[in-house]
Amino acid sequence: MKILGVDFGDSRTGYAISDAMGFGANVLPAFKSKSIKNVAEHTVALAAEHSAEKIILGFPKNMNGTLGPRAEKTSRLAEIIKELTDIPVILWDERLTTVSAHNLMNETNVRGQKRKDSVDSISAAYILQGYLDSL
Description:
Layout: E1 2-7, E2 12-18, E3 25-32, H1 36-49, E4 52-59, H2 69-84, E5 89-93, H3 97-107, H4 112-134
Parallel strand pairs: 1-4, 4-5
Antiparallel strand pairs: 1-2, 2-3
Helix pairs in contact: 1-2, 3-4
């Protein structure tokens, strides 16, 4: 079963897709849009294109476990996606995934525009891999 991982951001949303066996996450190109509706439509189209059977949406909790405005916006995205498709949407704790993505890029010396373009998709891969590892 293929699973789509999503790291929803204010201007860019990162994506990753699992392999068919569900062992690993592979990054996909990020989508640039500030419209939550456009992000939802792109996410559903990407899930269909890759025959994903689940969508794992990174859920940004605060470090103390509370929910803030970003979590509310992500919950709204999940609702819109659910209106557009029957593919199950799972909210997955994404604390520290962006930090992990930046650490990886520091270790591999990725800088500048390439770093900016890839951080969201790498974060999506961390979100998806965390879900896959939990299975």
